[in-house]
Amino acid sequence: xxxxxxxxxxxxxxxxxxxxxxxxxxxxxxxxxxxxxxxxxxxxxxxxxxxxxxxxxxxxxxxxxxxxxxxxxxxxxxxxxxxxxxxxxxxxxxxxxxxxxxxxxxxxxxxxxxxxxxxxxxxxxxxxxxxxxxxxxxxxxxxxxxxxxxxxxxxxxxxxxxxxxxxxxxxx
Amino acid sequence: xxxxxxxxxxxxxxxxxxxxxxxxxxxxxxxxxxxxxxxxxxxxxxxxxxxxxxxxxxxxxxxxxxxxxxxxxxxxxxxxxxxxxxxxxxxxxxxxxxxxxx
Lengths: 172, 102
Description:
The complex is a heterodimer.
Chain A (H helix, E strand, L loop, with lengths): L2 H23 L3 H21 L3 H25 L15 H21 L12 H13 L3 H22 L3 H5 L1
Chain B lengths: L1 H23 L3 H25 L6 H31 L13
């Protein structure tokens, strides 16, 4: 057991949970987006604590841009982005709280009760990890990786087609 | 084993928070935030499984990359739907989108 690692795991984990909670508890939409950014950054730091350096850095970079874009969209679409009007934008509070509690509890119980068999293998160095991940992506999992690329293309086309206003539809 | 359980419990709590947000919020962008939180928890689980159970199996890291892609795609398509909805109805509140089920 590595005490230092446990301390960092708990610290970053609690940070992620706290900011994840703040996302839905604040009235200001910009604070929500920035809280989600902080939560995702804490998850990225957890990746770094678990020595997945490439994934950790990738998570930090991707979430920084994604949440900034999300904040901009929030400003565009919300009636009250600053939360000054104190509008209530929630529904079915009790049911969603109960369902979320049940889901989280089930997963936590599985995590605690399952007899995990830890690996005795040594975790490869970051350079070795990058090399091996590259080999994995270009050999055995190439089709899956390419499918992800194609999905991005399809999503881009679908997003543009959905967001456009077509004249023929407008005239009807 | 304690470390793995700590990470998995953190991920379970984050997933629960995501479920709460997705069910509780009425705004489309806020619902997407809940889904992002759930996917973040899934990625945390995957990295924990890689680190503690199979450190030499890189298909798990590849799967994290796929989940990250799904996160970006969900945001892309979600924002496109939000943009269209805002253009036609002037609001992205899901409470006002009941006619979609008709």
